[in-house]
From TrEMBL:
Residues annotated as catalytic: 106, 147, 248
Organism listed in the record: Arcticibacter pallidicorallinus
Positions contributing to Mg(2+) binding: 7, 34, 147, 149, 247-248
Family: Belongs to the DNA repair enzymes AP/ExoA family.
Name under which the protein is recorded: Exodeoxyribonuclease-3
Length: 260
């Protein structure tokens, strides 16, 4: 099974890119972030015509998450992260696909710092960590994937010294990510490529993609039963070079049917 995550940075404006990549890559499950479309403006028919069932949680102008499944049923579990009923941001959606719990997330950016946006990000991280603990305790196979807006280590950012005061690289944000992983999750890309420079995002400015001045902020966290089935992982970096593309590239993993 191939599972992918992709921050599309506007699902309608990038629809040709998304459809081209879906045809080329043919993932079984896809998590999308940053739809930037209200619920009624999501391009449902185009996605279904591409062979995917889909659920989504839209929001006008900002945020938005979706889960796609090729020739598979999607059983929605929730479309908001527990812990704050007043939080109206469309940043989390969860479903069961082929017996796997799939949590698709778009974690807050947190800039500028210091300030309320960083505080919101850290609170959101706390809610995610609490929810993730319950998912682990369930014993079910779980994948938590999406745009975490955090570079966990210096290996995940092209010039660490330039990002020290950024909300994506602040010590308390990196510690929040570590606290989550330390519950018992596996960072899929780092398991397979522990020492390699891997990026998933390149800014539109200053020829960042051409210079390979990137960040690794899109992650796959796997529960123990899925960790044992992890067979491959990678980044479709070339998609970032397509015309009118997102500033993120799709990230994917492959799971074997049994432990590898």
């Amino acid at each position: 099974m191939k599972i992918a995550t992709y921050n599309v940075n506007g699902v309608n404006g990038r629809l040709p890119v998304l459809l081209r990549w879906l045809e080329e890559s043919a993932p079984d499950i896809v998590c999308l972030q940053e739809l930037k479309a209200p619920q009624e403006k999501f391009p449902e028919q185009a996605i279904r015509d591409a062979g995917y069932n889909v659920i989504w949680h839209g929001q006008k102008s900002w945020n938005g998450v979706a889960i796609l499944a090729r020739d598979r049923e999607i059983k929605e579990v929730r479309r908001a992260l527990p812990g704050d009923p007043e939080d109206e941001h469309s940043r989390y959606i969860e479903a069961i696909v082929d017996g796997i719990v799939v949590g698709c997330l778009y974690l807050p950016n947190g800039n500028p710092v210091p300030g309320p946006k960083l505080e919101y990000k850290l609170r959101w991280f706390e809610r995610l960590t609490a929810h993730a603990a319950g998912l682990l305790q369930s014993g079910l196979p779980v994948v938590l994937t999406g745009d975490y807006n955090v570079m966990p280590t210096e290996l995940d950012v092209y010039k660490p010294e330039r990002w020290v005061e950024d909300a994506l690289f602040r010590p308390e944000v990196r510690q929040a990510f570590k606290n989550l992983v330390d519950q018992g999750w596996t960072d899929a890309l780092r398991k397979l490529y522990p020492n390699e420079k891997i990026y998933t995002f390149w800014d539109y400015f200053r020829n960042a993609y051409g210079r390979d001045a990137g960040l690794r902020i899109d992650h796959f966290l796997l529960s123990p039963s899925l960790d044992s089935r992890l067979a491959a992982a990678g980044v479709d970096k070339h998609v970032r070079g397509w015309e009118k593309t997102s500033d993120h590239a799709p990230v994917w993993i492959e799971l074997a049917d049994t432990a590898v």
